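Two folds, back to back.
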Amino acid sequence: MSRQLFTGASLAALAMLLPAAAHAQDGSRDSATEEEGEEILVRAEPLPGGLLEDKGRLGILGDQSVMQIPYSLQSMTSKQLELFNNPSLPLANVLQNNPSIRSSTSSPMYSDFSMRGVNMNGNHMMLNGVPSMFSQFTTPPSHVIDRIDITSGPNAAVNGVNMSNNGTDSGATAAPGTLNIVTKAAPLEEVNRFTSTFSGRSNFGAYFDVARRFGGNKSWGVRVNAEVLNGGLALDGAENNSNNIFLNLDHQSGSSSSNLFGGYFDLRIDGGQRWFTFGGSGSELPTAPDASTDYDFLGTTKQMHGYVVTLNHEQRLSDDWAVFANYGSMEKSGYKYNSSSALRFDNAGGFTTANVSNAQVESTENYYGQLGIRGKFATGPLRHNVALAADLSIAKYWNVSTNSQPGTIIGGLYDGVDYTSDFIIPARGNPVLQWTETNVGLTLSDVITLGKFDLLLAASMKDENFLNEVTGVRIKNNNILPTYGLTYRITPNLSIYAGHTESFSRGQLVANDTRYVNAGETLSPMKAKQNEVGVKLLAGGMLTTLAVFEMDQQNLIDVVVTDTTFRREADGKNRYRGIELSSVGQLTEQLTLTVGGLYLDAERQRTNRGLQDGRFVNGVSEWSGTAGLEFRPVERVGLVGRAVYNGEAFIDAGTGGGTTRIPGFVSFDLGANFKTGTEAVPIRLSTTITNVGNRSHWMGRGGSTTFGLSMPRTFLVSAQFDF
């Protein structure tokens, strides 16, 4: 039934758009909505260097100038993805060019990253303004992305109402911010592009990109992107297999704009599970082993396939008023065979406990609709840019998780791992409906302008209804999420700002995993808030942002019950204070830079009996930063380099209630690109080396005592042909 609904919605949207497209194709024009020679394609413009755009999404108010938004926002372009991304690795590998973000995993089996110290993943990404289209396993493939609006500041109430499952580990919406993915639309010029890639040990990729604009004033656009990616990663025994095809259909006129994006994806990752826990009592983790070591049992895999569609429409009623609608649906299903929990080792790096294999089958259905109106008016000297929107989101989740009896694991970090004959992979079961959730919301936003001042006032009223289908427990959560901020534009290229936000949502649903004695329990509702002040300067070809922030979020911990079991529960809150600096742009005609750093003081407060008050937040580095560049000595040649730094972090020791240090690290990437070919067929050749020094290091995970292991040195070569 869900697939029929998906197909029906997609066909209905196409049915509304295609007749008009055919009408436009034969040269006809609706004189009521289009005028001869009018400009119909209004897009954000890249800043000098092309790594960022000058606009970003201010929730239901639409795209606004970055200089007027009262919190940190970077609108990362497809060029930045092209320079620093490897499609066979997690998207977080390039997201960490933003100083707020640090990758929490090197494995494409996960999409985890931290923003200002708080762990997040694909659940926190919006697709064309629509939430809950992705998950911890799935993220948008980089080849369909036109830009990424990275908001690392107080904006919880400007987007409308998100689902609570739009969060880490099925928890609350994270305090730090959101990421909005804007998909590629057809440009004015034709696109006939084929790109071939080779990465890792045997990972081959083929990418197809075709785009056309047609009709009067080229008001209609269609773009098709497809990916075939298969083969072995640099990590021995791991493979990335991704096949997808997506279509973006848009229409622009003097009175309306529409964008339909949709497609099918099939993603499978074999091997690459690289989570660990420390069961020793040492003050520092044992030295990281060779990153190319394979720790998976034979048959470790994770597979997911499904459909996703978004539809955005704006109808202008006058020069100052417009109504808008946003729709999205996602259906995915899949299975996995992996270790039920992270591998646990002692001071010498030897594995200390038996482990179990896990067979899990799951499926998800998410539906979202938003209807609103936005406009401009004046009250005396005050100018208002106002928007009002209503949201409805519906989510359903099916799951069955079957664990084997504990099996013996022989070996350690340095000599590899051997899963003995009693380590048996269980059979897959039939998924059962775990929970359903229906959210209704109402959001009001207003930017009030007086001279050089812009005051943002926003609030979302949320009616949340969550039913745990297994236990029968129903949770209702009615609250109001406020956001407000003030910007003072000293000059058009210099502004100072301050902002505040709060978020509320249902508590985390404890994973259905045998390691938790309270598996399936829904914890208490969660509250988080954030404050930020900062300055933005656009000068010398560089956009520089300096932000000082404070935020807090409920702290969730795993309390040890036995050697192999835990109880998931809340324990006070984590408080984060930090200073963030970024500068991105074109320093000279030949040199483009993206640099940034983050200082973060993260500590626990209001813990049980105050026993953990004042202690560090697990897995969070105090200092981190990124520096990347593109140097073009001549137009046809580009040299690319990047350094990623993570300072030391700490986790609670496995025994004795002590602390254990995760050493800091610096990782270097290098690349080059060369333009050749003919005028008829331009060719772009490029190569990158990730972790060029092949240095192995541990990777902390915000708020968790688990941690990851880096990937080995990874090569990527590609050839792009434009016909």
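---
second:
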Amino acid sequence: MLDAAMSLLDSAQRLLDDHDRAVTAIRDAFRPLQRELTGAELAAIPVSRLKEVTAGRLRLGALEQAGFTSVGEVYEAGRHALRQLPGVGGHTADQTVAAATRIAEAVGETVSVRIDIDRPEPRTTALVTALHRLVEAGPGLRRAHDSAERLTTELRALLPEAEPARGRLRMALAGRERRERALGAVGRIRQRLDEAADADVPLLLAQISVDLLREPASDVECWVDFELRSAEYYSVLAETTGSAPDVAASEGFMPSEIAGRVRAQELDDTRLRVSLRGYQSFGARFALSQRRVIIGDEMGLGKTVQAIAALAHLAACGGTHFMVVCPSSVLINWTREIRARSTLRAVPVHGPERREAFTEWRERGGVAVTTFDSLHTLPLAGDAERSAGDVGPLPGGVGPLPGEPRMLVVDEAHYVKNPDTRRSRALSGWTARAEHVLFMTGTPMENRVAEFRSLVQRLQPELAPAVEGIDAVAGSHAFRRAVAPAYLRRNQQDVLAELPALVQVDEWEELSAGDLAAYREAVASAHFMRMRRAAYARPETSAKLGRLRELVTEAAENELKVVVFSYFQDVLATVRKALGEGVFGPLSGSVPAARRQGIVDRFTAVPGHAVLLSQIQAGGIGLNLQAASVVILCEPQVKPTLEHQAVARAHRMGQVRPVQVHRLLAVDSVDQRLLDILADKNRLFDAYARRSALADATPDAIDVSDRDIARRIVEEEQVRVGVGVRVRTEG
């Protein structure tokens, strides 16, 4: 047995050594890139900033006279060179270099190394190749490494203690106390070996060691793999170089007592097929430790995989039945994600055969994936076992009955913001039956703060009084403290430092004579929706359409994929005709979800340039469009969230190129009036909803309905153009 323990210890130590070598290779490749970026930042910082670091005690006259203009120049010069300058003594030189070093260290912690796939060079190739080794080892690497660390620590302490037990003579020569310690160590070693065997640790160590010792892949293979799964490469880079995002930001600026409890929550990832990023692991732990919560991460941060991680943990702990409720447009995506990212069984419960699928799920378990509109047709389990009046959450320690979900995940939870709708009432019944409930939404508030309160009320009713008491005076920080037990939100810029740049350009166009004629007719008829699409009414002279063609042509020359969004199907039809053959779509609400995903898959699979058309309502939810790096918005939207969602479908984790967003706008038109009116609304949306902070402040700015906006714009445009009839806002 002791020989078996020694062999297991050797295997564990070899894995740790191989892992250390792989990590060292990554760090060695990373440092030159980090130093270059840090140097560029320091070169832009004026030398006067050194005085701020020393609270004004440093005299810079001699340095400036010697021609030093930036902190970077001082940092590169070093103490010896500075001491040679006239008027700079040893103490001043040391103080100056110390101040420059402090600034350099601070800059080094904030710079983000981005790997440019379009411009590979030897240093970034070395980094990608070094990362490839750990990425290829897969999610099992972390489990193997943790097991190896635990085994080496325990066995190194136990084996010397157990040494007398190797023979009778040794035991006889050992004193009584020594023999007792040896027998105790043998018992603990046997327990560790049994535990390792039950968890297949020896096999896991052997498999991961083979991965770590495999011959390095070719540069081309590594670059291709990076393009396919860049998020995993950046995740490994953050873990191995300490370039992870700010801890407080990655934890949603959670109060320390709650954050500590979440960190202490165990997360069993044995049933996951992917590695989680740090902030994703925190999100899954938050859902598990707090039990009934909302994760409102900004789009593109992987809310889906956080939910799957929580489901996988509960499954590893013995859970059998789980449920996901989502819009029909993303049901297929959820099913695919569950199967691809975990070993869990996904059961679509939708369509004409949903009752058969539901019965089969109850009998065999797995993750039932259903829609808001199908949920009310599914009978609640346990109605006979539980009293009809029991509608509250399950009490602590009370598990679900057979056929009830251990965890209920609700995607796009703002769909059920109104508690009086049929879909909301159906959801409430299932919410009461689940031990864990996770609401997911990237837009917890659009126009009314009450929507958010409605969601919190269903999850943790005891928080409702605290949320009710928050107003504009209290502001965002008070709100965050009040709802922290139930609400977690992180933004892309806080946790995805590697995300390529998002370049947003407003493309203002002068309406052509034909455009103006069509626009005046729409204004005269007081038809708001016709006004919004009048710029495309006469394609042969359309200024917006001309600019759209130019943008698509430029993207084609650079072999970039393009997504074109519009609110209107007839605008997309016009665009399709103008662009000719080879255009995918359009995606719309009338296209079945399976076909919609198929269109996106074919668009993604095309090498080089391609164009996908989509209604912004259909493409803004649930679909991953990171193959596209150019987004064209045919017109501004009444709801800012529609644009945020659509852009986030391309500018999200996994994107490896900068994303260009071109919004086509017409001067002196409904476009300009709409942007003016929405300016304050958008500002408040950013200040509150997108930063996890909501308030009842300035309802006049936030609570503007689509109809109110339409009426106001039509009336203003009728005055400006010189016509006037009743206002029409529909169609």
